[in-house]
Amino acid sequence: MTIKQLLFELEKWIPTQIAWSKDNVGIQVGEVESKIQNILLALDLNLEIIEEAKSKSANLIITHHPLFFNPARSITSNTLQGKLTIELLKNNISCYAAHTNLDSVNGGVNTTLANLLDLKEIKILAPLQDSLCKFIVFVPEKNVEQVAEAIHSVGGGMFLKYDKCSFRTKGTGTFRGSSDSKPAIGKPMKLEYAKEIKIEILTEQWKISEIIKAVHENHPYEEIAYDIISLNNTHHNFGLGAYGSLKKKMKSIEFLKFVKNKLKVSAIRYSGNISSVSKVAVCGGSGSKYLLNAIQKGADAFITSDISYHIFQEYSEKILLIDAGHYETEHHVLPSLQKNLEKIIYNHKETSKVHISHKMKNPVSYL
Ligand SMILES: [Zn+2]
Asked: Distance between CA 161 and CA 171 in Å, rounded?
């Protein structure tokens, strides 16, 4: 299995299309046609992690934060980014970033954090917008299963615990081909009434070109009638942040201690004159901009990081606002990433090992 094939499988879980538009997820450095050896996971890249990859015979490092978040104007040993890139290339190690797409999936940063806090009935705090469309195609009755299967095989009609979702209605299609047409049903120049099925499928917009290709390869008609309709529906599978309820209501002070204990942190910053907590929202990393979503969902507490003084000040009457640290709210995702990669490797009968780095460093220290 090549690195490219492994990443193709991984992106079925964390599609790059769901990442923030200004993010830079995906392959950062490397030769993706190389055969996959072992894999090393980390939040950020540093030189010790590249050494660790070498010692573990890993030729792929997957980090959460992209090596190239801002476009590089040069790659030299004068910058850390340049040094890291040179080391990766010298050692034939590829580097891949799973960032806001890993934040936005089930089993990603946010639902992992919500699960760590034992929340129940976990839902997405800010579901992905403008990503869905309806694909409608008209198919002769005898070809319905073949065309529907082709659409499903490229991911159409697949949501949470369900796949192969479609709606079908019977009808009559009419057409008349010109003298140089080759109709699959009827004859050129003759008006035809064909028994057809209208197949409706809900899908993500980024799958549309693959769906059209699959339909063209499996539909008998020379000219295929289909519609693509953009929808305002929010996506239930993808989005940032998560929220849910505690198993039992806690006093605020009790909850703050509970968070410290669950996240294994020595200190947290917080504000809020809230007496008790039962509904909790989370957003791993810098999630202040989802604070209003948390308030709107009725959360008593919101846990994120990089909260500014003025945000603490402004919302102290509305919610228990907790800054538990950027690193501290994100690194819990790595075992989930490891598990998903191990599943892919097992399914492809490969023997690669997936390691979580022991050389990760939280850039922030507490005294
Ligand atoms: Zn982050």
From this structure: 30
pLDDT one-digit tens code per residue, 145-199: 999 999 999 999 987 788 999 999 999 999 999 999 999 999 999 999 999 999 9
Which residue type, as a one-letter code, is found at position 245?
S
Q: How far apart are CA 28 and CA 126, in angstroms?
A: 27
96 alpha carbon – ligand 1 mean position (Å): 15
Positions in the chain whose pLDDT score sits under 70: none
Residue 135 main-chain phi, psi, to 5 deg? -105, 125
Residues that place a CB less than 5 A from ion ligand 1: 285
Domains and CATH numbers, the chain: 3-98+332-356 (3.40.1390.30), 109-128+239-324 (3.40.1390.30), 132-230 (3.30.70.120)
- Provide the total of helices (H) and of strands (E) in the chain, helices listed first: 12, 15
pTM of full prediction above 0.85: yes
Determine the distance separating the centroid of ligand 1 and the alpha carbon of 60, expressed in angstroms: 20
Closest CA to 44 of 28, 23, 66: 66
CA of 360 to the centre of ligand 1 (A): 14
Q: Give 186 Cα–ligand 1 centroid separation in angstroms.
A: 60
Is the separation of the CB atoms in 295 and 283 below 8 Å?
Answer: no
